[in-house]
Amino acid sequence: MKKLILSLLISSSFLFFFSCSKDDDNGTNPTPPEDPIVGTWISEGADVAPGLVSTLKTVRIVATFNSNKTYNVVATDSAGAQVTYSGTYSVTENAGTTIRSITLNQTQPTSVTSQGIYQVGSNGFLKYEVIQTTPAIPGFTPPTAAEGFGSTKYNNTSLGQTWVQNFVPANPKSELLVGTWVSEGANVAPGLRSTLKTKKIVATFNANNTYTVVATDSNNVNVTYSGTFTTQANSNMSIRNITLNQTTPTSVTSQGIYRVTTKDLTYEVIQTSPAISGFTAPVATEGFGSTKYNNVKLGPTWIQKFVKQ
What we know:
Blueprint: H1 2-10, E1 39-44, H2 50-56, E2 58-65, E3 70-77, E4 82-92, E5 100-108, E6 112-120, E7 126-134, E8 140-141, E9 153-154, E10 157-158, E11 165-169, E12 179-184, H3 190-195, E13 198-205, E14 210-217, E15 222-232, E16 239-248, E17 252-260, E18 265-273, E19 279-280, E20 292-293, E21 296-297, E22 304-308
Antiparallel strand pairs: 1-2, 1-11, 2-3, 3-4, 4-5, 5-6, 6-7, 7-11, 8-9, 9-10, 12-13, 12-22, 13-14, 14-15, 15-16, 16-17, 17-18, 18-22, 19-20, 20-21
């Protein structure tokens, strides 16, 4: 089982080819487009495979894929310990599906071969599932494109989502925050539930960097907030910085952090101008829960969870 886990950590690869006609290069042989997999991809939070969370306490995977078919994967556990895996990869298309097959030949820290499947969605998110095949792990068979994700088997029994891994691009081509997000029930930040009796928040972030947030309290009274926002990436992290310049109903500035996964949005901000005495905004390097009052972290008090609509 340990070998299986290691192979899942190192085997993080997705590929998507785009066709190109001869007319694109005036009848000459065109240069094939660079694989979209080339670059850096990050898996954190809800995107980490459940099997990795429960067995290796994995909290983050940063995978870099190069155009020469080499890869480098750094896995970090809950204690901050890191393991780096590297090797080469190859891919095969499957007729009638966008799910591709992949073979990874790991050379560091040990030599193993892993096989499985991956897919690049139209939203640019990556999904993959692989297991070690050489040396073989008794009882295990790799997933196949025909059966889809969740088809890794042990003694012919499918293991479902246990080893399905998801990634978002470290440098997305478009802002992943754009869209409409809803937070209800336990997903609403405890601080908002206790102070404003908030029961629901609908937040819409637009591609032109404007936003609208509608908050509903336990008496079904709505308050609408709107303004503009800017974001900033942090190296090798899916947690990004955000600044919101609210114009309605009052003019204030808020700052904080957020993370978009393939499943949800985690969000934590506080007002910074006019400043609230004693409070400091959360920072990416300290993670969610790092909003402070008189230098004491407030934990989950102001952490907000959203689901995309």
